[in-house]
Amino acid sequence: MHDTPDIADRHDAVCVIGAGGSGLAAIKNLREHGFAVDCYERETSVGGAWNWRHDRSPMYAGTHLISSRPLTEFPDFPMPDDWPDYPHHSQMLSYLERYAKHFDLGAQIWFGTEVVAVTPVGDGRWDVTTRSTGGGSSRIQRYAAVIVANGHNWAPKPLVVDGYDGFRGQVIHSSAYQDPQQLRGRKVLVVGGGNTGCDIAVEAAQQASTVWHSTRRGYWYAPKYVFGRPVDQVNDLLLKWRLPLRLRQWLIQRTVRLTVGDLTRYGLPEPDHRPYESHPIVNSQLVYYLGHGRITPVADVARFDGGTVELRDGSRIDPDLVITATGYLPRFEFLEPELLDIDDDGRPDLHLHAFARRHPTLAVVGLVQADAGLFPLAHWQSVAVARWLRLRATDPVRAAAVQQKESVRPVRSWARQHTVPSTRHWFEVSHTSYLRALQSLLAELEPA
Amino acid sequence: MKSDLLRFDDWTSPVPPVRREVLQAMPAADEDLPPLLFVPGLGHGAWAFAEHWLAQAASRGFPAHALSPRAHGDFRAYAHDLVQVAASLPRQVVLVGHGAGALIVARALARYPARAAVLVAPVLDGWTTLGAALRANFFGTLPAVFGAPLRFSRRQLFSADLPVAEADAYRERLRPAGAKAQRQLVTHGSVARPVGNPPVLVVGSPDDRVVPRASLDRTAARYGGAPLLFPGMGHDLMLDAGWVEPIDAILDWLTKELATARAA
């Protein structure tokens, strides 16, 4: 491949795409391992999804954590211990801003700069084309490795139903929901039984005149607290004791039965899967408002018809605002799909959901969904990537041996095998199994 | 050494928050130097650094803070408090631990990537230190073996250069530590490796009657160096008569380390 003279060669530097929580962890850990880092961020500040000022941020005024503080913070930079169990999104932003300042990451970040293309040059190196978000000419720079940390909660998954275009009411995706003001006095249909759908249904119950909550299947609704402790901390006690999955499923079923009770009594469908087979729904208030008649559970949406919505069971409702909490799809517009082995459904196939299988110098950080917060996983992912790149540079023979060994690591050891069929559960992991897999990888990557 | 990715203790029973006592001395102008965070050993509080060292560090441009270990706690809680204070400061911190405070620092280093660390008269070899303490102050140490508060003699902590009245005034200010922390000081296992590979300096005195010379060498070797020695001083280097020499040497070392890192 010939060299084009206008490409600035950054030699051993690594390119990080995105300065949200995952990107910041990547910059910090790469620098700790001695790499020069250039990070490109399309927005003008850090925080990614947690920064409500960003136009791609899914935050709404009342967003709080779903996982509790100790299971959400970076393992090497704890949140203040006098913060609540479930901090508000504004606290998360200030946490990420303090992290960036504390480790002096700002100087490595090019704000207002979008990555438009990342192409392999052949020898494991990459040409990264960037452009100022405000427009202007593009620029190409060559890097030794690329770490993608562009987040996976910004490209809304569209709701596909008949009659969508002709619907007379207002339809917004949950990412466009920002403030309870939008709900006040209206007849609201919330579509989707994920954590966002449940949270918005609860907010609507406090503001709207009528609330319907449409879910495709029955879920296990875990309360945020059981036995006076945050539920994920109690769950981790079961994981600490290494109870077998079946026993944990039974215990969770018993606990939910005893504390939350029989959900079919409120008109919700029976769960069609066992606990731990889908992303956990943690919501204490949904059942409360169901019990107060403020939320009416309804079946899946069949089609929109003028001013009404027809449901799968044939009944009709007439909302004037539909909020689709259908989740998000990961998107990597700047990469050719085969670089990440992206299939027809848009799912990348990555080793440990992080390492590109055919490109040793390309990795994605933060593309996992766990029964705990994301930052601890993103932290250790980026440590593993940094150590991998370091070993590859210093000891190629041993790096090849590690690669060989990793290629036979069974997928079931780190990925959830039994999840409900849905476009948003494929990257679900158990944080303990996943971290154990990363721990053994880190041990292999240890400098000799 | 294994790195611990699975932290069930922190995930299932987080250390309860407390109000922490932090004393500080700030430089006249911000010279963009990393903050120093001092932590004392058993019995002492942040005051031990506020006597001389904080002001000395601040006079040389370093923001200086000192944390008192919580009243009722063990080393897990002490290290938690240290990391909490470190993370609350605006820049990556240099941790300085004295005596058993060095063990707090060593444990915190496994959790927090410090800019650098200094272990002053470090009590990291629990059994060796216990042996030395029994030899130097048998009747003050023996009850502690059975859970009573540890008592230090004047000659364990200070050299003869410090006036007796001053030495006794300092000893008056010592507060007994909990039995659990005292026990852990001896029985704790090996300390996990620091994260982020910070430079570590070991400082001590060959005439320290709490930490024997061999123990200083061992601790320094564990962090890949040799100890910086200040003959003639007692265990409490920050309070003893010659306090200015060790802190100046620490700051010189730090200045050099920072310059090396900047050049790299």
Give a structural overview.
The complex is a heterodimer of chains A (448) and B (264). Chain A is α/β, with parallel strands linked by helices. In chain A, helix 1 runs parallel beside helix 7 (375-394) and helix 7 runs parallel beside helix 9 (431-445). Chain A has a five-stranded parallel β-sheet with strand order 4-3-2-8-23, covered by helices on one side. A five-stranded parallel β-sheet of chain A has the order 9-20-10-11-16, covered by helices on one side. Chain A folds into two domains: 8-155 and 328-445, FAD/NAD(P)-binding domain; 170-324, 3-Layer(bba) Sandwich (FAD/NAD(P)-binding domain). Helices cover 26% and strands 20% of the residues of chain A. Chain B has 264 residues and is of the alpha/beta class. Chain B has one domain: Alpha/Beta hydrolase fold, catalytic domain (Rossmann fold, 3-Layer(aba) Sandwich). Chain B contains twelve helices and seven strands. Chain B has a seven-stranded mixed β-sheet, with helices on both faces. In chain B, strand 4 (94-98), helix 5 and strand 5 (116-120) form a beta-alpha-beta unit. In chain B, helix 4 packs across helix 5 (100-109), helix 6 crosses helix 7 and helix 6 packs across helix 10. The longest helix of chain B has 20 residues, at 244-263. The two termini of chain B are 27 Å apart. The A-B interface holds A 32, 69-71, 75-78, 80-82, 98, 101-104, 232-234, 236-237, 239-240, 372, 380, 432, 435-436, 438-439, 442-443 and B 2-3, 5-8, 10-17, 80, 83-84, 87-92, 111-113, 195-197.
